[in-house]
Amino acid sequence: MTAEGFPGTPLFQRAAAAFAACVPVEPADDGFFGPGSVTWRLHADLSGPVSGLRSLLLQALHPLAMAGVDQHSRWRDDPGDRFATTSAYVLTITYGDRAAARGAAERVRRIHERVNGIDPVTGQPYAAGDPALLIWVHAALVDSGLAAAALYGAALTPAERDRYVAEMTAAAELIGIPAAGYAEGGAPASVAELAAYFEAVRPSLATSRSTADTAAYLLGMPDVEPELAEAWQVLAAAAVTALPGWARAMYGFCDASDGSTGTAPGSAPPAREEVRQVLGVLDAVYLGEPGVLEARQRITVRMRRAGQ
Amino acid sequence: MRLAARGGARYAANAPRLFAAAGAQRQQLRDDLALRTAQDVADTLGTMKGVLMKIGQLASYVDDGIAPPARRILGRLQDSVPPMSPELAASVIVAELGDAPERVFREWDPLPIAAASIGQVHRAITADGRAVAVKVQYPGIAEAISADLGNVALIRSLLKMAVPSQDVTSLIEELRERIGEELDYLREAENQRLFAAFFDGHPTASVPKIVDELSTARVITSELAAGARFAEMLTWPQEERDLAAETIYRFTFRSLYELCAFNGDPHPGNYLFEPGGRVTFLDFGLVKHFTPGELDPLIQMIEALCLRDDPEGFRHAMEEAGFLQAGAPIGTEEVIRHMSLFYETVRERGPRTMTSEYSSAVARRYVDFKSPLAAYASIPRAYVIVQRINLGLFSVLGAMSATADWRGISEEIWPFVQAPPSTPLAAAEAPWLASRSGPRPWSASTAARAVGGHVDAVGAGEAAEPP
Q1: Could you report the per-residue pLDDT of B189-200, keeping only the tens digit for each?
Q2: Any long-range contacts for A156-162 (C-beta under 8 Å, 24+ apart)?
Q3: Residue A275 class from Cβ within 10 Å (0-12 exposed, 13-18 middle, 19+ buried)?
Q4: Mean of the per-residue pLDDT values for chain B?
Q5: Which of A98-107, A245-254, B152-161, B439-448 shows the lowest mean pLDDT across its residues?
Q6: Tens digits of per-residue pLDDT, A40-86?
Q7: Residue B440: phi, psi to the nearest 5?
Q8: Contact B46 A276 (CB under 8 A)
Q9: Could you give phi then psi for residue B344, rounded to 5 degrees?
Q10: How far apart, in whole angstroms, are the C-alpha atoms of residue A250 and residue A58?
Q11: At CB < 8 Å, which residues of chain B contact A?
Q12: Where are the alpha helices (DSSP H) in B262-310?
């Protein structure tokens, strides 16, 4: 470790700066969710990093989403920046006021306009602004939030899980998914619709060399300093454990005969307590960055005043 | 108001930083953030955070040894813990003492006056009219921290990051044990009783008495003490600070040699000061007990270096205690050069001033693993915390810029010297000291070695009673 910081410090610093900036000191309004929402609670949950990692692993299984990332993003050159940007986006649309949320969504939509091409694996054309692709990314995010929390985070009731999926359709609309019911081409609005969506989309999913590379990269994180490697392995195993069984099978993580769910065939899933301990340590490091504690307190105060 | 009239107001006004700076707006914020349920406690202090805070608290005695980012993180972590809501604190009283605080006590102040690391302190007046401080443990914290202490592998990596220059193997077991003990208020109360009984009647050192019937595994009720906080005391004239420092010094080393116990926490927040050198010692969550056999090598080291000027004897004692590998290819002169800094204040008679520079130099030397000694030196587990607390003591005395003839005072206290009173405070202490009876904890051989002023009065071999 250097005098400047812990292992992983640049990542923490960027994520922290983004977080502090995303949570307004004097919001003009309660944004698209509001302090009484399940979304506010879930997006502040300890399980967030597992959710994020699981979300990326899941999203990579869609060939067209993967192709877009492969051909237009240089995230592997600077994964910390990529994680910070993505988490800043989610935090801004969650905790920001409506103007900030719309502004952030508008910026992403403009970037998406330039992201299109032909997937070299399937030969299909793709466009990042395609509602079908947007729904895929959205559904993976929503599903991951629920899955990670269920295993390693706050307990939500079935009704709260439904509410979260329904609330998040506001995020879907911000990014350009039609404001319509799920049957009419909108985002899933309940846990049941989310499950139905994954059933329906599974035939379009595939693994490729890119998928495998991405997973190997995310789970191995060559940029992680050795001191952090063990902790990262726990998170990686947690993210893999939180994946749906079919996704684990597609990645080859799951040895169906023994039901194991680790990152390697035969490895046991990490215990909830152990994952939470690692997440708690990461959270403590995160809290050490300037502005994070204050931003979190702003969220807590508003949630409590809203009766949460 | 009545509670204030009893002297608690000053304590409250000088309470630690969590509540001290609370303007109306800040107080409102704290109320909004208060821990309201056991789940809030678990979310805030579970998942390793409570353990990290405790590690930080222990490690903070050696600021120089802890990596700067770790220090920052641990500091922030302490800021992140809000007090319990009045309702949550009351629920602990109900669970532990059987009824609502307003009924258990004649008066109960629902606002805490201070934050303890895993609890908070309320003022109250007992049914029989005593003003007391009631330390209330966060519900569920003991279970959460105990569970987290089980993850040795993670704690090991954390320590490696937080104190990169230290050998963490001996540290980790000792930390786990000490932190585990601190969760047990019964043990803390027992320690406080031990110290309170020992210093009962002392003219300047005072330990609040435990109210037994109102103390449990999660609640400690003790007499409410009054006095100025550390920061306020620092504004007092130097003579007052010197007297206070002398009391702290006497308290620390009397307990070490007479009780075989190194008291708590030489943390500035754990003292209350009154003029005339009167000091109240507050927190007994971190007390290290020694066996006489564990103390003997420390005594022999002092004896060899400070009394006999016997470098080889010193080295031998270090080796016996396990501080230094036997036969390490390092000249004894080198060993002495490295180690003598730790004894600088007691090697010679005469007034010496403790300074922050000195305490920092000691701390730096302590963690200097680039020295030629480093490869052959280690700190056996029994001494790992005590050494750190010792550094904390130097740091407190250094902050006070305290001047005294530390050697003279030490000679009074060292069981192998037992010199007569060397200061006015010592003279005032004499009746109290004479009233301490019963067998002394140190071994007969240590006492038999007594030399100097009082050897005749003590009587070689008998050695049980001080004059």
Answers
A1: 999 999 999 999
A2: A156/A38, A156/A42, A158/A191, A160/A38, A161/A38, A161/A191, A162/A190, A162/A191
A3: buried
A4: 82
A5: B439-448
A6: 999 999 999 999 999 999 999 999 999 988 888 877 777 777 788 88
A7: -85, 150
A8: yes
A9: -55, -35
A10: 10
A11: 29, 32-33, 43, 46-49, 52, 67-70, 72-74, 76-77, 79-80, 147-148, 151, 153-154, 157-158, 160-161, 164
A12: 292-302
d(CA A301, CA B31): 9
> Least CA distance to B159: which residue of chain A?
A227
Burial of A270 (0-12, 13-18, 19+ CB in 10 A): buried
Structure token pair of residue B227: 């006095």
Phi, psi of B108 (to 5 degrees): -140, 125
B219-223/B271-274 β-pairing: unpaired
Task: Report helix angle B406-413 to B238-254, nearest 10.
Answer: 30
Question: Are A288 and B67 a contacting pair at CB < 8 A?
Answer: no
pLDDT tens, position by position, B129-142: 999 999 999 999 98
Of A5, A276, A304, the CB nearest to B32: A304
Contact by Cβ (8 Å): B406, B347: no
B150, amino acid identity: G
- Shortest Cα distance from B121 to chain A (angstroms)? 23
CA distance between the termini of chain B: 47
